[in-house]
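This part of the workshop introduces the protein records we will be handling. A record pairs a protein's sequence with a compact description of its fold. Backbone structure tokens are a discrete shorthand for how the chain folds in space. The question running through the whole workshop is how a given chain folds. The record below serves as our worked example for the rest of this section.
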Amino acid sequence: MTAIYLLLRSLLRDRISAGLYYLLTKAALLYYLVPLPFLKRWYGAAIQTVTPKGQMKIAQIPLTWTNYAVHADGKMYVNTYTGIQMATVSVWLLVVCLLMARQLSEYLRTARRITRYTDTKMTNRQREFVAGLQEEYRVKRRIALYQGEAGEPAMTFGVYRPVIICGRETGSREAELLVRHEMVHIRRLDALWKILLQFATFLHWWNPLMWALYRELDRVCELSCDETVMRGKTEEEIREYLRLLIEEAREEAKPGRNLLKWKSGFGNNKRKIKERMDNLMRKKRWNRFAAGMLVTALIFANSMTTFAYRDTDRAGKCVAGRNRKYLANGYLPVCA
């Protein structure tokens, strides 16, 4: 799915909106997290209902892979790769633990930073300001808004009860644009998707396509958020938003700024800011129905690979049958 997405992006480039690209990256992410073999039975039943009897034959290969041997066609072959497999799993698990430890350290550092703000109470002006934008963007979760340090880039933490930190004066035009941007992140559950992305990266750290998806999802997340905030706005309002992008990027690039993880932020590095500016200035097409149909077609096409998985239930029955056979002949059974 990731490879198809990268190919699609290289062909279409900037002809379609970042919102569609964001949907595709989220669909690709699910492929790394959701076990797909269960779809095999559904597809098999669907094919049998539309295929006349006698036109389809399913070949079953009696193959059982155990820890120490491979049983196939009534013969047993010694598995000499057990040691290599165990070493590979050990290396994979070690890297997963190191990545998780690093992210846990970043999370704790971020949590300590946020605690400084959550110890204070929101003012009535902040509550009214957030309530108005929540109603506009139809966000029903409880959201806290706190005044950050002067010049501190806007950012959002949390999923269930998000916290927005904004360094601009509450009620100002700049604060409104910044909080609108963060409100879109909250409405779309972008923080949750980034957590899922981190988890998938832990599991598939060895896959270069996973790292490509990691960078791509983070990129199109901000691009699509900008498009949502500026949808239907005038050119003057877009220019005002672009100026704010530049100011926030400058603040974040200043020495001594702690770049926190586990957050959705407005500011970013210069290269990404330029890309976001170019993206807003281009006119692209966005059709929800067409986007949904394209995502559904790609998901269905990629899910057909589930036929490559072996049926675990039949494999278990095969193992049990062979073990009974070996016991009858005086041999010890081999556990799968």
